[in-house]
């Protein structure tokens, strides 16, 4: 299968590299990472060892593939969609944080699938990605229907040795992932602690509170996610990735823009529309946005 992986950050590089063991993969990312992959291949180490040679590009326009995976930061979704709209794809599947799929649907003709990936990944240097946790990829239709296309996409992952499944309950899973991100990312970034430590002490109360609020929004929107299921998912992911730092914690440590809008912004928007109080998510959003504004990483 021809697979385009749009966004060669840590997760995109890992998933693209693993897929390249069985498929014809093109990675789209930035130099110097892409240059090194072109010249020397992509080294995967940590929990999985591999060296693969995917195609590595810095411009993702006018391409075609059976499957386009979108793995950019959530705030780059519109730019990714504009580039993908110039090409031809059998299907598009997001493995991003936040509820980005609606934006892809609005901009693209091919069918868009929702996906989650629970692999841990860290870019060590150009051309080298570490697998810090082996997880699974789950894909499915946005509406929560059984989907033959999702089955085919999930088989493409399993053919490359990635544990994967097609699921008919993506609306619930997307909110579950959002609850996990809301619980871990903000508190871990503000306290500068690992995912495991996020559950301890006062940060743990904030983390669980944020996850519960996302479950209330999910319920109000008709997705079947209880507060206890959201907290269970948060605790499971924090335990399974205990030694890792969340992407937001890494972003703050590196002085980079975060995914605050894609994670907390989307919760606040939907909560306002559905009249659900979300004070913990609102506070986390305000503090992280203030941090970004203070570093001129955002204007509002
Ligand atoms: O998705 C993640 C992130 O870091 O953005 C979690 C689930 C928190 C894993 O680290």
From TrEMBL:
Residue intervals passing through the bilayer: none
GO molecular function: 2-dehydropantoate 2-reductase activity
Pathway field: Cofactor biosynthesis; coenzyme A biosynthesis
Record domain Ketopantoate reductase N-terminal: where: 3-143
Catalytic activities: (R)-pantoate + NAD(+) = 2-dehydropantoate + NADH + H(+); (R)-pantoate + NADP(+) = 2-dehydropantoate + NADPH + H(+)
GO terms for biological process, alphabetical: coenzyme A biosynthetic process
Name assigned to this protein: 2-dehydropantoate 2-reductase
InterPro entries: 6-PGluconate_DH-like_C_sf, 6PGD_dom2, ApbA, Ketopantoate_reductase, KPA_reductase, KPR_N, NAD(P)-bd_dom_sf
Family affiliation: Belongs to the ketopantoate reductase family.
Lineage start: Archaea, Methanobacteriati, Methanobacteriota, Stenosarchaea group, Halobacteria
Class of enzymatic activity (EC top level): oxidoreductase
Pfam family, one: ApbA_C
Highest taxon above the source species: Archaea
